[in-house]
Amino acid sequence: MSRERKVQITRRAMHRWQIWCPWIAVIGIGLGTLGGLNAQSLTWLGTLGGNESDAWGVSANGMVVVGSAKNSSGYWRAFRWVRGQGIGDLGTLTGYSGSYAYSVSLDGTKVVGGSSGGVLPPEAEMYVGQAFYWTQATGMQPLSGLVESSNNTCWAYGISPDGTTIVGWAIYSHPTYPPIRRAVFWNGLGSSPCMLESLSFPSQAHESSAFATNGTITVGWAGQAYQGACLWNTSCFTSRTDIGSPGIAYGVSLNGEVVVGQNR
What we know:
This protein is mainly beta. It has 2 helices and 20 strands. The protein has a single domain, classed as Neuraminidase (6 Propeller), CATH 2.120.10.30. Helices cover 6% and strands 49% of the residues. It has a 4-stranded antiparallel beta sheet with strand order 2-1-20-19. A 4-stranded antiparallel beta sheet has the order 3-4-5-6, with no helix packed on it. The radius of gyration is 18 Å and the shape is globular. It starts with a strand and ends with a strand.
């Protein structure tokens, strides 16, 4: 039996469509229309010695894939797979045993993600981890948390095509409520994160996270007791545009005109 999932495509300030279709049909039609491809093939990327792996990002030419895989000790580790070379462990940040890679620049040379304990899936460990930025020259380097926070907890989900802008979330220590996630961006390695929206929603329940960016437009979710798909112009304390609620936006086209995500 085919599984169905609701996919929402939004053209910013234009139209909104909701399409129901089996995943297999989406894959078949999508690949069949790209570059005049007449046939598709499946390539197994392997693991790092364990029995599980997940792929999350791919370069523009399809030669580089990033994700996370279990090693022989059972820890999740960020990987970078290169066609013709195979899968490689990107390592961890100091003090952590695991890591997870989520996005890669168009040329495949820059990778972002998060490093944490590595025993559980990332959604269970990200709150005690730290975002990273990886290149072959520098290896895995930490991204800093918010200066307003009492800890350095942060997580990176997306990187711009040229690799200069990184987006995700960082913990903000609210003076009244428990720490909450806030959508942020970094202007490369060594920069401090900047919150994408002001603290005009001080409620404990209002959180936000950024998932993808084309360098100018950043998409993700924000919510006060619920989640709503939204986009920001990538600048400090910018205004937010809500594009669907409840929902989450996961990706944005290079020209910023098309946003994809999930309607919940």
